[in-house]
Amino acid sequence: MTPLVEGSLAPISASHWNIKRAAHLLSRAGFGGTPAEIAELAAMSPSDAVELFIQGRDDGPTLPDFEDSGFWEPSLADFPPSRPATTDQAAESGEVMGVKNKPTGPRPLQPATNRFFYWRRASMLETRRVAFWWLERMLRSGHPLEERMTLFWHGHFATGEEKVRDYRKIKLQIDTLRAGALGSFRDLLTAIAKDPAMLVFLDSTHNVKGSPNENFGREVMELFTMGVGNYTEDDIREAARAFTGWSNDDLEFRFDEAKHDTGEKNFFGKKGAFDGDDILAMILDQEQTAIYTASKLYRFFVRDDIPEDFAIELGSLLRDGDYQLAPFLKTLFLSEDFHSDLPIAMHIMSPTELIISTYRKLGLDALPGVPDPYTTGNTLGQILLYPPTVAGWSEGRAWITPGLLFERGNFAREVMFPDMISFVDPNYEPGDIVRRTNDNINAGMEITAATLEEGAAPSATAGIQESFNTRFGNLMGWQEAMRKLKPTPRAAAQFNLTKTLSAEGARTSEEAVDLLAGRLLCVPLTASSRNALIEMLTEELGTSELERAQGHTEYGLRLVAHAIMCTPQYQLA
Amino acid sequence: MAKRPKLTADERNTLIKSGYDSIVLEGAGGIASSPIWSKLTKQDPSDRILVIVELSGGNDGLNTVIPFADDAYYRSRPNLGIREDKAIRIDDHFAFQNSMSGFERLYKDGQMAIVHGVGYDQPSFSHFSSMAYWQTGAPNSGEVYGWLGRMADAIDPQGHRQNFLVNIDDHQSIAVNAMHHVPLVFDDPEKFSRRMFHAEAEAIAAGDAQGDVDQNPSLDYLFEIAASASRSERLVREAWDSYETPVDYGLVNWGLERVAALIAADFPTNVYYVPYRNNAFDTHVHQGNLHTRLWSYTSDHIAAFLRDMDRLGRGDDVVLMAFSEFGRRVAENTSLGTDHGTAGPAFIIGKPIHGGHYGGIPSLTDLDEGNLKYTTDFRRVYATLIRGWMGHDAVGTILSKDFEPLPVFRMSA
Q: Which of A378, A468, B69, B390 is the most buried (most CB within 10 A)?
């Protein structure tokens, strides 16, 4: 058979289609899966298999909508940008976010302070629930490419709750990204430029006529469309002017004519009274925009290195198709390049891919709450809805350090052997300082004294006239938020390796190790590693014949799975 | 004896002519004319060690290097202002907190450069953003690599030197993100390990061993990391187990003792990044005693570390820089604390340093919405360390722009 050609976008023929390539497609266009799912794809034509990812399956499970805890009240729409701004506003106007100051007595601004912390904690906790809900979609969806593209766009238009401080806007943005995930990049870019979370994240409210803020004007070219070096600082300034007046009214885009600079701008060498939409259209007209976007998609789905001429070819493909993403991806996933030897098993999975593919390979139908996915993401370096900077995550090798490789193995251990005795729900863990304050308040201490650090001289409390106490406000905020918070399900993963392997016909420890390695890895174990695993399993079972170990195989099989998941091979897709 | 040469008019003029626009207080501290540390020994410059200490949370600079001679300080801080007689006077203008005897010693020994008014344009008041700006060395941009990571890539582009970068933390700081270097990140040397059951140990070790070299570069890379992890795990644990010191590191061991253990074991590391963690310096409430204590832990620990380096015979090879992501507002708040602000002091410490004051002293009355106007871009501090200490001239390629180093180094040693 003729080998597939790297750099060729020609579709592969049916004769090249096999189990290995079906598994490759499933691991990249989706999040991987079970041997049965791979076999199902391999039995289709390559074109039908790719189409299944583009369209999603008809018989996928119904995915529930996100259920709010019920934190929100309309008065919170005027949430001030910071705690000092909150108390300043309360001091000035007598109330803030629907809460009046205490008319007399100590700490008149305490209600305002409590209110501030309530929403900070509520929004943060709810954002974790949104991430949990999204991860469960990635696990269960019959249209995994849609979720994977949403994840791609989340890293591309990286917006974090830390600054937006409103889970509703974050959730809305993710919904917008999902709705446009496989549509037209032109529409998606426009939608995101008018998305409330993005408007807040890149300081659009501060971008007004006469006093432009360049944050969005810069990032839209540097990160969202073209990359550095393809525009000038003047272009940024002029773009910022064109975007003046773009703002949001809570969850809606708002154009404030009075704040818009209607003057002539000079952008990319053209002159006109451009507005934001004009600027986006002019950016999309640039060849570089299509090259940059197509290259980033290629690196996310295929491999890290992209030859320059191939990047230009992919850029033309995207641009000639008027930035329609579905046909672009279909060409890519069917191409000889995608199925050639070069990209196979070359992709180092992100923490999110690692988590979801682990669960999909085990055939789970619910996202385990133990280990906690937020904690796992934090440890492994990817917390959904909290990208580290506006540039999103650096992919590939950046995911791996010696310590993180260990931690990936430690995650696998928590999947195979969830430690229910040690588990503490992090959503109910406000930290040592809050706990200490809480203990003091519960013990009947006065507020100021209760919030002083241990070891502080008692005389320090004498004569203090505070207008509010942030530490107490933080405690009150945590308590109120945690009381309303809907619990996150904390079930361990439900699976049974004994049954799975028995159904696959495993009779010996050797066959068990091979079947588990085949299910979990896209690159084989080394011979010595395989031998060590067989030996370990045989020793653990007291026999190499599974039948003779009936009723006590599960522990040993899970040891094998854990050890396989600690290998370097397991990080690849 | 204290080294406090008074600056002559000539020296001042020379400095200004050389383009060093740092304003140096008359009578306070010395000034060196060298932006570059040129040690005349046979030792390889790659023996030089840079230790970065991150004081997370936004340290209150005004209550750290206390401008007691400025009445405006006491007007803005009627309750929190620290009286001269309750502080350690270091010259006619400034004092340290009483708990900072460690810093006092370093300053009086002429080993501490205090850089004033360190900040940047369009400051962010978010811990997260401002810290990311410091860590990437690129404010208001989408830079993904850290400034130390880029420095390591520039100095050793092939990434040949193992463990060039060490980060003592429970997660990797953006500051050490590099394209070609894999930073060694660990927290508790006892816990830098795989968690595994007894029965698995051999099988898991076998899984880390590479068979034939593969055609798959990603897999080769992962095996390399696995080998480095196993090796480093052992080396770190051994270094830690065999490290003993008579030096007292103070009440809180927040990381430099682990750095000392690795240096004592001759780790080939050039850069150590150590945060004082958990936003500790975020002192919004009743900060007086708390901030005093934080500085006793910080200054005792740093001074102990440098003493320990001396003990190990590495005093001439180590420079430490301590910073915080921002300072705090000039005025105190009504909870006897301070809120997020802008510029603050940074400290460059070590035997190669010519102690004294550097950078313009920010005015306490000419403010930007209640905040100090920065006088020294923090990337000048970085440029000082990159060029002056690490000996790498192409500062502009690392910081995307050239920044003038501060003349903090002694002429020679």
A: A468
Chain A to chain B Cβ contacts (< 8 Å): 203
B63 has a chain A CB within 8 A of its CB: no
What's the total number of domains in chain A?
A: 2
Q: Chain B closest CA to A559's CA: distance in Å?
A: 7
pLDDT of residue B29: 41
pLDDT at B31 over 60: no
Q: Judge whether A514 lies within some domain.
A: yes
Q: Distance (Å) from the C-alpha of residue B303 to the closest C-alpha of chain A?
A: 24
A468 and B284: CB-CB below 8 Å? Answer: no
A326 vs A452, more confident: A326
The conformation of residue A81, written as its DSSP 8-state character, comes to S
Q: How far A550 CA sits from the closest chain B CA (Å)?
A: 20
Using the CB atoms, write b or e for B145-173: b if 16+ within 10 Å: bbbbbbbbbbbbeeeeebbbbbbbbbbbb
Of A400, A466, A535, the CB nearest to B335: A466
Chain-chain contact of A468 with B335 (C-beta, under 8 angstroms) = yes
Q: What is the mean pLDDT of residues B310-322?
A: 96
Residue A228 predicted with pLDDT over 90: no
Q: Are B114 and B357 in contact (CB under 8 A)?
A: yes
Which of A383, A354, A359 lies closest to A369, judged by CA? A359
For residue A238, pLDDT beyond 50: yes
Contact B225 A401 (CB under 8 A): yes
CB contact under 8 A, B289 and A400: no
Maximum Cα–Cα distance for chain A, whole Å?
A: 88
What CATH architecture is B9-399?
3-Layer(aba) Sandwich (3.40)
Report yes or no on A230 lying in a domain. Answer: yes
For residue B41, count CB atoms less than 10 angstroms from its CB and return exposed for 0-12, middle for 13-18, buried for 19 or more.
exposed
The pLDDT score that the predictor gives to residue B1 is 35
Question: Chain B contact for A342, CB < 8 A?
Answer: no
Kindly identify which residue of chain B lies nearest to residue A389, measuring between CA atoms: B142
| Predicted structure pTM score | 0.81
Nearest chain A residue to B206 by CA: give it. Answer: A529
Kindly list the residues from chain A whose CB atom is less than 8 angstroms away from the CB atom of residue B222. Answer: 348, 400, 405, 568-569, 571-572
Predicted local distance difference test score (pLDDT) of residue A402: 82
- Interface residue of B128, B219, B290, B294 to substitute, partner A, most A CBs within 10 Å: B219
Tell me, what's the pLDDT at B25? 39
Q: Residue B353 is inside which H or E element, if any?
A: none
> Which chain B residues touch A560 with a CB distance below 8 Å?
203
Confidence of residue A456 (pLDDT cuts 50, 70, 90): very low
Which residues from A are below 8 Å from B197, CB to CB?
417, 559
Q: Is residue A399 part of a domain?
A: no
pLDDT at B372: 96
Share of chain B above pLDDT 70, in %: 88
Q: Please check whether residue A13 lies inside any domain of the structure.
A: no
Q: Do B199 and A536 touch (CB under 8 A)?
A: yes
Domain final residue pick, A242, A257, A285: A285
Listing DSSP states for A380-440 in one string gives HT--TT--SSTT----GGGG--HHHHHHHHHHHHHHHS--TTT---GGG---HHHHHHHHH
Q: Residue B382: what residue type?
A: Y
Rounded Cα gap, residues B308 and B315, in angstroms: 8
Mutate to test the interface with A, among B194, B218, B228 (most CBs of A within 10 A): B218
Beta sheet of B95-97, edge-to-edge order = B65-66, B95-97, B87-89
- Averaged pLDDT score across all residues of chain A: 94
CA–CA distance, A475 with A121 (Å, rounded to integer): 10
Alpha carbon distances (Å) from A383 to A159, A386, A390, A402: 12, 5, 14, 20
Could you read off the pLDDT of A275-292 as tens digits, one per residue? 999 999 999 999 999 999
Residue B286: closest CA among chain A residues belongs to which residue? A452
